[in-house]
């Protein structure tokens, strides 16, 4: 007859529950995995599967009862760690969507907006288009697999511990959030420059021929120039997007606990 003690049961529960909370936190916040179109049951099933695979490789866990206050604190800390990793990668897609919003406003196309089920808000058509392009590029370079690899490595670089994480991690995550504006403006800069030249040319044309209706001819011209510039710049967006994906993966590795990254992990490339 097989007999199990309470200590053994608690150890087995903790070995699966604590890694599962970090995994579910990442799946809830990370791009692609955390999209609103993915059913919650699929996310939970994938999280349990990943936890069953990763749990045997996790270093020694703290000797705490999962139902105690210390165990619940560890559970919450692991959930926050996973959310921080997924949110760090989500900021990359937010930067690309911000570039689409800037392009739409510059083109005068901000009125063409749709409901975004992921953010439960309104987003422009150009922003939705760039987000879809970024999602396909992310999947094409196996970014989702590299993100899961970073998640598995985080249990070694940032092991499950009863010690609270450093207070510098939220500050680093807030600083990383500034990438939304810098990277977004860099991506949108070709369209902004082309439309600036177009608006200057329209201003000179209106000054030379005041009888022209600038509102009648300016709007279709700016729309045409904007779409033409987007079509010309689209083939060259692969490199900046891939660089953003690299930075997002590195941020997901280092930001949650402000832990040092192993040389092999820091140099990981997409395949």
From TrEMBL:
<protein>
    <recommendedName>
        <fullName>Flagellar biosynthetic protein FliR</fullName>
    </recommendedName>
</protein>
<feature type="transmembrane region" description="Helical">
    <location>
        <begin position="129"/>
        <end position="148"/>
    </location>
</feature>
<keyword id="KW-0975">Bacterial flagellum</keyword>
<comment type="similarity">
    <text>Belongs to the FliR/MopE/SpaR family.</text>
</comment>
<feature type="transmembrane region" description="Helical">
    <location>
        <begin position="180"/>
        <end position="202"/>
    </location>
</feature>
<dbReference type="InterPro" id="IPR002010">
    <property type="entry name" value="T3SS_IM_R"/>
</dbReference>
<dbReference type="GO" id="GO:0005886">
    <property type="term" value="C:plasma membrane"/>
</dbReference>
<keyword id="KW-0812">Transmembrane</keyword>
<feature type="transmembrane region" description="Helical">
    <location>
        <begin position="40"/>
        <end position="61"/>
    </location>
</feature>
<feature type="transmembrane region" description="Helical">
    <location>
        <begin position="214"/>
        <end position="237"/>
    </location>
</feature>
<keyword id="KW-0472">Membrane</keyword>
<keyword id="KW-0966">Cell projection</keyword>
<dbReference type="Pfam" id="PF01311">
    <property type="entry name" value="Bac_export_1"/>
</dbReference>
<dbReference type="InterPro" id="IPR006303">
    <property type="entry name" value="FliR"/>
</dbReference>
<dbReference type="GO" id="GO:0044780">
    <property type="term" value="P:bacterial-type flagellum assembly"/>
</dbReference>
<keyword id="KW-1003">Cell membrane</keyword>
<keyword id="KW-0282">Flagellum</keyword>
<dbReference type="GO" id="GO:0009425">
    <property type="term" value="C:bacterial-type flagellum basal body"/>
</dbReference>
<keyword id="KW-0969">Cilium</keyword>
<feature type="transmembrane region" description="Helical">
    <location>
        <begin position="12"/>
        <end position="33"/>
    </location>
</feature>
<dbReference type="GO" id="GO:0006605">
    <property type="term" value="P:protein targeting"/>
</dbReference>
<comment type="function">
    <text>Role in flagellar biosynthesis.</text>
</comment>
<feature type="transmembrane region" description="Helical">
    <location>
        <begin position="67"/>
        <end position="88"/>
    </location>
</feature>
<keyword id="KW-1133">Transmembrane helix</keyword>
